[in-house]
Amino acid sequence: MSLYSLSSSSTLLACSTLIIFLSWTAPSTSAFSLSDLSSTSPWSAFLNLTGCHLGDRNPVLPTLKNYLHHFGYLPDSVDLSDDSFDDILESALRTYQQNFALDATGHLDLRTIAQLASPRCGVPDIINGTTSMIAGRLHGRGLYTYF
């Protein structure tokens, strides 16, 4: 192998690397968007609830009620098939919003929908009326020392 072919191989590799590097775009850190959730989240149906509030009816509300029931926000006595936004659902959403350090309005705003649609573990946040979450702190976070 000649010095010339080694040099042109190195130049070709360097140029290819530069082109790949320049074509890569860093993730956007600008405005929050729910459009990314529509294809990645099993809870993307919640996007249809944006702006939903007390008194509204929506065919996706039973799915939300099942989600909130699973994670301990709604009691067993609630009709999970009901498609109406009632006082009990509003209260459950306020508690959910407080636990995740969101504005506790009881309304389904963009930030709440994004949190609902975010990946998470299946462990309930509230068990027997007790929560270990305090305004957005993760479960067990205070039990360990990190270094």
Whole-number tally of structural domains: 1
Please report the first level of CATH classification, the CATH class. Answer: Mainly Alpha
- What is the percentage of strand-forming residues? under 5%
Quick one: overall form?
Answer: globular
Structural class: mainly alpha
Mean pLDDT: 77
Report the order of strands and helices: HHHHHEE
Low-confidence stretches: 20-32
Please provide a written account of the structure.
The protein has 147 residues and is an all-alpha fold. The chain has a single domain, classed as PGBD-like superfamily/PGBD (Muramoyl-pentapeptide Carboxypeptidase, domain 1), CATH 1.10.101. The protein is built from 5 helices and 2 strands. The chain has helices at residues 3-23, 37-40, 61-70, 87-99, 110-117; strands at residues 126-127, 130-131. It has a two-stranded antiparallel sheet. Residues 63-116 form the Peptidoglycan binding-like domain. This is Metalloendoproteinase 3-MMP-like. Its cofactor is Zn(2+).
